[in-house]
Design goal:
It is an enzyme of class 2 (transferase). Pfam families: Phosphorylase (PF00343). By secondary structure, this protein is mainly alpha-helical. The protein has two domains: 114 residues, no CATH class; 35 residues, no CATH class. Strands 1-2-3 form a three-stranded parallel β-sheet. It starts with 6 loop residues before the first strand and ends in a 10-residue tail after the last helix.
Length: 174
């Protein structure tokens, strides 16, 4: 059956792309994106504009420096509260999530979850605000779909055939 979505959240630390082709498919169908600014998201921004999506988190060029800051990098109070709730079993499965909580609470938050959390909440709030303004949301959705032509499968396959596989299309025999 047909399915639809108003907002697709692609939650990956910059440099660890969540799902570029997935983002493009959602975009073509009028779904808005909430995502970090890297990989395919950068290409999408070039086509539809950052104002038609909800961006959050560290930029690709910031990630390594942020990782090097390690323990001195402070997570937001909101993030600490959520991790504490998970650790205390508020959502169930207390023992199952212990190693995850240990990782993100320590100075070893490789994926910068603590750093990106406040920015994510801001992007989510912006999406919530845009959603209740039907005219704004509809305009963003239309512009997203209208700007997504670059991501068609025909163009992508042609580009792969030419640049990656080094093959030419066959001519129709009749």
């Amino acid at each position: 059956g047909d399915t639809g979505s108003d907002l697709s959240q692609h939650l990956g630390t910059a440099g660890h792309e969540a799902s570029g082709t997935g983002s493009m498919k959602f975009l073509m169908n009028g779904c808005l994106l909430l995502a970090t600014e890297d990989g395919a998201t950068i290409e999408i921004i070039e086509e539809i504009g950052a104002e038609n999506m909800f961006l959050f988190g560290a930029k690709l060029h910031e990630v390594q420096e942020l990782r090097e800051q390690g323990a001195s990098l402070k997570a937001s109070l909101q993030f600490a509260r959520v991790v504490r709730m998970v650790r205390d079993g508020y959502f169930g499965f207390k023992d199952y999530f212990k190693s995850l909580c240990d990782t993100v609470e320590a100075s070893n938050d490789f994926y910068l979850l603590g750093h990106d959390f406040a920015s994510y909440l801001e992007a989510q709030a912006a999406a919530d605000n845009a959603f209740v303004d039907q005219e704004k949301w509809t305009q963003m959705s239309i512009l997203s779909t209208a700007g997504s032509g670059r991501f068609s499968s025909d163009r992508t396959i042609e580009e792969y055939a030419e640049n990656t596989w080094g093959i030419q299309p066959c001519k129709c025999p009749f």
